Amino acid sequence: MKKIVQIFFLLCTVISFAIQAQDRTVSGKISSVSDGSSLPGVNVILKGTSTGTVSDVEGNYRLQVPQSGGVLVFSFIGFASEEVEIAARSVIDVRLSPDITELSEVVVTAFGIEKEQKSLGYAVSEVEGDILESGRNTNMVNSLAGRVAGLQVTSTGGAPGQSSRVNLRGVTSLTGNNQPLFIIDGIPMNNSDDSNTDLTDANTTAGAATPNRAGDINPADIETITVLKGATAAALYGIRAANGAIVITTKSGKQGDGKGARVTFSSTFMADEVLRTPDYQTRWAQGSVDGVYANGTSRSFGPLIQGQDHVNALGQTLPLRSFDNLDAFFETGKTFINNVSVTGGDDVRSYYFSVGRTLQSSYIPNQDYNRFSIRLNASTKVSDKISTSFKLNYIKNDGDLPFSGQDGNNPIFALYQAPVSFDLGGYPFQNEDGSQVNWRGGSFDNPFWTANRTFVESQVDRIIASADVTYQVLDWISITARAGSDYARERRKDFKDIGTANGGGGNITNNNVFRREINTDIILGINRNITKDLSLNLLLGHNINQRDLEQDVTTGTELVLPNTPHISNSTPGAPIELLRRRRLHGAYFDAQFAYKNMLFFGVTGRNDWSSTLPVDERSFFYPSVNAAFAFTDAILLESDILSFGKIRASYAQVGNDAPVYSLAPVFEQAAPDDGFTQANAGLNFPFGGRQGFTAFDDLGNPLLKPERITSLEIGADLRFFNNRIGLDVNYFQTESTDQIISVSVSDATGFTNKIENVGQLDSKGWEFLLTATPVKTSSFSWDISANVSRIRTEVVEIIDGVDNIFLGGFTGFQVRADIGERYGSIIGGAFLRDTNGNIQVDSNPNSATYGFPQLGEISNLGHVEPDWTGGIRNTLTYKDFTLDFLIETRQGGFIMNGTTELLQFYGRADETDDRTTPVVFDGVIVNEDGSSRPNDISILKNAAFWNQWSNITEANVYENNWVKLRSVNLTYNLPKRFFEGTFIEQARFTLTGRNLLLFTNVPDIDPETSAFGSGNAQGFSRFDLPSTRSYGASINIVF
Description:
CATH topology of the domain at 107-250: Ferric Hydroxamate Uptake Protein, Chain A, domain 1
CATH class of the domain at 107-250: Mainly Beta
Oligomer: single chain
Structural class: mainly beta
Radius of gyration: 33 Å
CATH superfamily of the domain at 107-250: TonB-dependent receptor, plug domain
Number of strands: 57
């Protein structure tokens, strides 16, 4: 028996060795396609078996596999799984791609609370920080364009330091703020561009467009951005989030990652050039009368340029020729972006420290914008129950910004209209006596004078800081105290030298703006299983928010010395001081129930007490409810077609308080008009050593109550074919009532307007998000993400006797909110038409407009709101190469193209070139009996024709359709073998293009920009600072 046992064990040993001889070891490294970083904790399974392992902290793995054949399966949360045939290889390195079709495990919602994506009863979109950084936009807001359904970004122009307007799901306020609240690491932050601080017009078309403050944030510091679109998603933030919220989470070290300090360095260079310039006629010289040369005019209806002698603006007799003035003026802008960060952590503490520097020169000479940023994020576990975190960001911006819009010092205004026969690049911009050399007098400057003798200098120091302490009372109860502040001080100087158009004897304005926001929260969190199947996540909180605005303005005129921008070099006027202070208290709760992790129900409520409302109306409560049902989990559906399905619905009501000082009359410095001279010219204050004040135009209202915004949303999340295809659909409708606006009153009151609770806006829309992975192999993948939005905002009512509200514009052209129309109507002179809609031609031979189209009545020429918007992103990865590109489009709506209008009037537009060939305008002549016949009057399209054409607003109102190739990135992740034995962990190189292509039916301009800046009036462009096309390269190295 003993021998039998010995023989048995001997046979087992032999068989064991034989089996082992047939096995082999496969090893490798697993990393991310996005940035090449190592991926620890990846599951590696031999397909069809239970044999497997996980990668270590450096992403390395080792696994025993059969001698031949076999397939390895690599899977990791948030990444697409990969199946790789082993074949005869012993080393298999794998790069996993982010799974854009997979529902995220968690997303950051209100107050930085992380929640499971599938538990949400409302729409939330998340954009990863590496996507923002890859766009190489210096203003991170612009990087959101085209990536989020329902989100629209509009820029004031492409020069450095320009502001951008963000809108989510249409308009909720007739005249108030329609931009979302920005939150950074749980703290509200200021996103004002300070072009309007109650001393200027919010929809101004003059002055300088200053940056919106969200653009201060360094994109390299951002981990994620979560877009809370609906009222339900943002309800916990209270009245300030009535338009939604954009939640920014910055980077931090990871506790317990065991990697020690990691240093990341990135450097980017971009070259910026003007994306689009007008199409010009280049054959006709300066002159106001057809065929006659003349200096001193901005019009180009002079003689045909044939080399004939002429006396130029300098008094020189030279042959007449044409010049490329745009090429002479525009430069190639340059952007340098450098960032260094150090991050690390252990089981107790973590840290993230970064320094960033951006240097940006403009395509306009002598214009630049620079940013310096330092950030420190740190956290520590004081004990098993107490943890703390601290975040500090110091930002310093400085720049010389251009004037914009209709300001006479906007260099684009003069540049675009400059006659082709004026040698802008060859002539000096000033005479020997220091006076300006120009082709015309009046209100516009030589662009080179503007670039050298005028400026808007801005210097901003900003500190955003926050700290929180969390005490874990029990495993399921926690208390968090959080405090934060956003402090910004801007020193702005506007300078116009002696000899500047509309500058008199020169002027200088020192404008100091100080903003401070303090925010505190105390939050009680309860996360408890009520039963085996039912859980509760409860949040109770209290918030105090205070915002202060102080502004000191001193303007000096009649400069003594030229080119000396100092207030002591002027005759200073009376200083203006502005103070705005408001406080908000809020108490809130959020209760979320989950049943078997498939049925979710939530209810929130917040009560705010606002200092800007009357005492009796100061307190107001607004609730929200939401529900989600993951029906595929409920029925345990196992389908090769439908992988996951969820339906959701929400209802919410939010409020909005009044602007400061809306309850009683406010006094301002007097600027009286004596009836003969300009305001403040006949009688100046201080007068006789005494100051004077007058009541502000708006009469306050002590009976105001808060605005109400009610929102309903339904949607569905569907995933197909093992998450290879995803579809997210949302429908929403919003009703905004009790609008707080300024309406006209009788002059007998002593005021021009009164603040009232009136008006109603209704918005509704659809949002679609489609994600897909059409191709996926071990070495190649193709991911698609496409979004489409269709939003309608209607003005339902204003107040009895008032049919519209002015939003922005001029005499003869306006953008208004008209009852019964979509928000933002273009109002102007229309073509006179017959009963069939044909354009009517003037048939009176004694008329100055004989044969020309006729001007009809002031009419509604179209809405500015797009019919639909969309974006599509493609990511193609082949081994170590990744190609990523984004296309954005807006279709429908209308735009008034004031640039083309004035270029036609000045005779510079390409369509004014043929001015000697007789033509018959396509229209009709209305007979005396009212019947119409085709026009047969032959005319010349000369100066008189374009005079009449420019009087008709409708002639230059275009349907606003455009498609942009928004960004292209080609990235190469250098193989690890390049760095073996070095201190470099990984590196990647990227070629970047931004705004490379534009397709549009709108002539001469980029229709995405707005002359009205970030105000509510949109749909108008007139000599906006042109947007840019950019090319560049960047390198990212991790040590």
